[in-house]
């Protein structure tokens, strides 16, 4: 069992930066692929970025070149560095841990990111 706790959300002006963190408790953090998802009001939850157990990363087209996902297996933490934030990035951001075959999936409770002047 893995518990995920996100932090680092908040209010930022357009063009600003935030770094989200997701701390995992429990065992076998390094076994999971870790991802960040987001959900804006009245929209479906969407993938933002994911990092595999081996460090391979994928990004949504909308965030490529602006966001960077990374993981620290020693600290059981995954990060999302968000630069050049836009109003359309505003959403609740969720951390997800998944097994390779998606038979095991864990979600965090989410952290709000607000981009506004």
Helix content: under 10%
Low-confidence stretches: none
Order of helices and strands: EEEEEEEEEEE
Instruction: Report the biggest beta sheet as strand number plus sense, adding barrel if it closes.
Output: 7 strands, mixed
The helix-and-strand class reads mainly beta
Helical segment tally?
Answer: 0
State the distance separating the first and last CA atoms: 40 Å
Q: Sum up the overall morphology in one term.
A: globular
Radius of gyration equals: 13 Å
Beta-strand fraction estimate: over 45%
> What is the β-strand count?
11
Question: What does this molecule look like?
Answer:
This protein has 117 residues and is mainly β. It is built from no helices and eleven strands. The strands form two sheets. Strands 2, 4, 5, 6, 9, 10 and 11 form a seven-stranded mixed β-sheet that branches. The termini are far apart. The mean pLDDT is 96.
Describe the structure concisely:
The chain is an all-beta fold and 117 residues long.
Provide keyphrases for this structure:
117 residues; mainly beta; seven-stranded mixed beta sheet; four-stranded antiparallel beta sheet; 11 strands
